[in-house]
Design goal:
- The chain has 6 helices and 9 strands; from the N terminus they run ββααβββαβαββαβα.
- It has helices at residues 35-38, 42-45, 88-112, 126-135, 177-189, 207-227, and strands spanning 5-8, 23-28, 54-59, 63-64, 71-72, 119-124, 142-146, 164-169, 194-199.
- α4 (126-135) links the parallel β6 and β7.
- With 229 residues, it is α/β, with parallel strands linked by helices.
- The chain has a single domain (5-75, 83-227), classed as Alpha/Beta hydrolase fold, catalytic domain (Rossmann fold).
- The radius of gyration is 17 Å and the shape is globular.
- Helix content is 34%, strand content 19%.
- The protein has a 7-stranded mixed sheet with strand order 1-3-2-6-7-8-9, with helices on both faces. The chain has a two-stranded antiparallel sheet with strand order 4-5.
Length: 229
Amino acid sequence: MSFHTITYPEFHPVDTLATPHQLLLVLLHGFGANAEALAPMAAYLELTDQPNAMQMVFPDGPFPYPASGGRMWYDIPNNYGFGQPLLASQQQELLMSRTQLREWLHSLEGEFGIPLARTILAGFSQGGAMTLDVGMRLPLAGLMVLSGYSHDDFADCALPLPPILLVHGRFDRVVPLPVAHQSRDRLQAVGANVQYHELDIDHGIYLNVLELMQTFTRDILTSLEKDME
């Protein structure tokens, strides 16, 4: 399974012959958006003090968003309450997206030469929910969840758990703040190392969010380098 993707720096198969980047950062868009919506973040997330440290990949979700040219990981009815059990139709689409995303993530080492242990999975809103759903069950280097939510209580999550950056806006009217508290509490209940930040923002990715992401990424890279000493 493969997704349509945007890469930064722009990647070509011949690049695998060169020295691979130290980290792979995969960023998942939200409901009704697409890879192009998140790709401009790349220039802000790049570790300027460590050039060529990171390859970034932005995939499109597998399902077309019905009202525009965007994509989605599964449909969200207007009356859906975030943090509540998914409807049967949502569960079917989620299962498909989960399977495809997990298989695709496993395939990336062959494409980029970077293993899962050096891969950070991140997502905004519905992409954040997919980050937790898939990422808590894979041996990844870290997870970043921006204005997201959780599908379950992670009872069957993989061990050891990756460190997690959880960022949410106090004025978020799309995914309300109590939903972020629910996700944080679920993660902490299974022993996850959660860096939780509430910011005076709404449902969006602002400069202060990008700064937190960059710091988290740099800390992951530093930790990986220490493990190799």
